[in-house]
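[Meeting: bench + compute handoff]

Bench side (C.D.) handed over the final construct sequence. Compute side (W.E.) agreed to return the predicted structure before the next meeting so the bench team could plan truncations. Sequence as handed over:
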Amino acid sequence: VQLQESGPGLVRSSQTLSLTCTVSGASLAGTDYDWSWIRESGGKGQKWLGTILHTGGTRIDTPFRNRLTISKDNAKNTIDLQMSSLKPEDTAVYYCGVILGVSSYWGQGTQVTVSS
């Protein structure tokens, strides 16, 4: 399984961030995998943001429930993240990934910088 994140890189405070994770080597429609987004910043380490289940349901970390949406497009084989009301503290490298048993697969990450 390979994953590749993409996004705008630089966004302004209060705007909405949209990131796309393109998956190859596995079909979103044909598997029962659950896909996650995490982020990592220098001062705060890694943080789980949320997971979209193979059923389409989502689990979002409590601090983000009001401004984070995770969705998937089976036709495009992508996992999408939207985060609204951005703040400078949302600056981080964002990763998408999947955990399969004892193995995990993550993309290389995409840097997001939120300017004030």
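W.E. noted at the follow-up: The mean pLDDT is 95. C.D. will use this when planning the next construct.
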